[in-house]
Description:
By secondary structure, the protein is an alpha+beta fold. The chain has one domain (32-179): Sandwich (Jelly Rolls), CATH 2.60.120. It has helices at 2-7, 26-31, 98-103, 158-167, 174-179, and strands at 34-42, 54-57, 63-68, 74-78, 81-84, 92-96, 113-115, 123-131. The strands form 2 sheets. A 4-stranded antiparallel sheet has the order 1-8-3-6. Strands 2-7-4-5 form a 4-stranded antiparallel sheet, with no helix packed on it. The two termini are 30 Å apart. It binds 2-oxoglutaric acid and fe (ii) ion. 2-oxoglutaric acid is lined by residues 38, 40, 54, 59, 66, 68, 73-74, 113, 115, 125, 127.
Amino acid sequence: MEAIIESLGIIEGNQEKETEGKDENLVKELKDGSQMMVANLYPPCPEPDLTLGMPPHSDYGFLTLLLQDEVEGLQIQFQQKWVTVQPISMAFVINVGDHLEIYSNGKYKSVLHRVVVNAVKSRTSVASLHSLPFNHTVRPSPKLIDEANPKLYADTDFNSFIAYISSKEPKRKDFLDSRKLTSP
Ligand SMILES: O=C(O)CCC(=O)C(=O)O
Ligand SMILES: [Fe+2]
């Protein structure tokens, strides 16, 4: 995250000099932030072409650390095509989540991904989603907003996310789309 913040041209503030703009200490807030772990088991499916292990979605949070076993299944959308992420033993897949897209005001894009199943092998994965504490608001960094770069996303928090996914089946990048502000 420090490298990402640097790449955005945002200089992290000194903790003692915290001002009203809470973004000053994003790294610290993330260290004390939320972690959600999801363990997934995809049993073999006799008719894999008729279903998906997980529908297309992008993840809650800034970054997801994903550990997959040796069985293929994860696909990301790249240039309108689904591309399989080849499992690499003992390596994490790092995915950009919705909160990083919001915080960076669209400079980073959260990755749309899905999971396909197969007829032969079961597959397991563990995803670890990292963000600010659950009671914090995620918003575009004020340091990235000016007249030339208007704010593109509404403020969001965990409650609005839960309210949204409870109200409808999560499909595609729906939640993020719901945070997008129409052009000013
Ligand atoms: O099983 C996978 O490889 C991906 C799981 C996933 O996308 C998730 O848990 O959010
Ligand atoms: Fe995911």
